[in-house]
């Protein structure tokens, strides 16, 4: 969400902040399968209370901070105690923690809790691989990518062993670059939709026939919706400000009409009293009093005119800010698109280079990428929550998983 501009009232700025917190809790849910927390995940917790009487948010820094999901799958939170965390999405855990704080502290209003993942639990690659051990987890990880992190399968001493390992390694690296290319294409499509003022994203041509791109478009659509809401919120605030100022101008016009009428009556009375005073039929003090009244009405008219001019100037300022808001948003999107284009060009160059390495490795080994040699084959499985699951190269790997690779030698 974009930052609130300085001319917005405090209440609207606080509302924009509240919207940002809601987006933080709901953006991840746009994906088809939201991430579920695992043991050893590190999470950042932020607790915010809305004070309606003061129209402000107060952050409870003593309760916020970084927490780790323990071996039992629970997390210890102040005032709430141990909360089952593993297997839940960050949004579900945030809601449960908010309800727990409300109940334990006896609050009238449920506090706003947001949770984001600071660090995923690592994965482990074990068995017949070049470098077994612990590796950092990233969303979208598959078995072949995890295998490439560990250097590929461990080969025997036959002549084709190194060639087969090279095929697996370069193929995994190539697929990682392909995934990054798809993410950048989805991001560029979202930016183009925002620049065109569209509420939906047109899938890139490169996505035709490609599997697994729906989550990428879903994530970018969530960003698109959040940005449009932020922009519309600020624009609506300017519309409200302009409406109030226009009503003030109408009120000033009515006051001016009434004051002009009073001034006309006072001027007429002053003319008559002066005539009588010249004939000695009225006292001089009466003339002075009416002159003071006339001057007072004239001053009121000047004040009304000044107030009208200030209101009109404020309307003009609001229109300028509205234009600046749209121009600033378009400029930010243009810069972001240039950055994406530069990254795409870099990834495309790396893809071309990596594709050449794949072809060279395949030609040298005489095998197809991902196949085993003639004397041995590999089996793959994933150990998750104590259960071993058969897997292949495209099987998704979750944080905390153990990837098991076994070399089966033909008899």
From TrEMBL:
Domain called Soluble ligand binding: residue spans: 123-158
Pfam families attached to this UniProt entry = HH_AprE (PF25994), Poly_export (PF02563), SLBB (PF10531)
Q: Which residues form the signal peptide?
A: 1-32
The reply on keyword Signal is yes
Its keywords, alphabetically, are: Signal
Where would I find the Polysaccharide export protein N-terminal domain in this sequence? 30-117
Stretches assigned to the AprE-like long alpha-helical hairpin domain: 173-354
Supply the PANTHER family for this chain: POLYSACCHARIDE EXPORT PROTEIN GFCE-RELATED (PTHR33619)
Q: What is this protein called?
A: Exopolysaccharide production protein ExoF
Source organism of the structure: Devosia yakushimensis
Gene from which this protein is expressed = exoF
